[in-house]
Give the backbone structure.
Amino acid sequence: MAGTAEEEPLRRGLRDLAGAGPLDAGPAPVAAVVARGRRIRRLRRSLAVGTATLLVAGGVTLGARWSGPEADTPPAGPTTATPPPAYLFVGKYPPQPPSRPGDPLDGGPTRPRENVRYRYDLSTVCALRYAVFGGRVWERADGGGPSAGHGATDRVRGYMSWTDGRFDRAERDTAVFETDEAARPPLTFRPLTGRPPACLAREPRRRHGDAPAATRGPDRPSPGRRYVYDMPKECALRYAVFGGRLWRAEGDEASHTAIDWVDDLPLAAHMTLTSPSTAVLEWPSLPGQEPRTTTYRPAAGPGTDCA
């Protein structure tokens, strides 16, 4: 009969007794001793199991007690199960940061491409009336007076885009300066016809680069506000990333649009969050034409229509 180490001394004693002959007390006392030993063993096992159960339950209770209300708060994370691929967020051109105090003024490229938005700092030395962009001097189309709000800084940070007038002979070249500030309207510039003003000689040094601004608006856009937005061409306008979310063009409208495919530079466009589930993109289909609109809805992830 198999048993534990606790019963082994008792068995040895029983074997010795069996070898010594019959006992006056008979087998009843021996059976009673064995039964008592087994009861003690079962009691010890029960106590051990109960102690382990209490430890486990106690650990769970302590864990719940010390975790507090944060235990019921889901961890922060993206709103979609599968985050969009990186190329949808940045396209082929990463967003360009604005200049810092003491840096040279952002001047854009010496040969800008049409309908592309570039980082540009409008100098305040001429009261925001003139701009040097694309190797030319421009003046405000409205005649320009001092524009309030720039304070004591030497620049107003923003973006400049250019449109040639060749598609509409009645319209001359146009350069448009925009900022991220909702209270500051865009400023339209025309090529300067006379001599450059002397104040431009006091402009701080400028740095030039061909990289587009590639701005995508803020992470938390305000509903109803129109933001500068540079639309990538990687997915033929089918997908957009705005406000930290991925959006897909409603229907197949974006696949039929006629846009400038001469290069892969992003389009200078505007995006507006019209409702929590609707974003509207305004973009010029061709330079000189009126902007078109495309409606976007939230998307869980890119489909097979975006290589």
Observations:
- The longest strand covers residues 155-163.
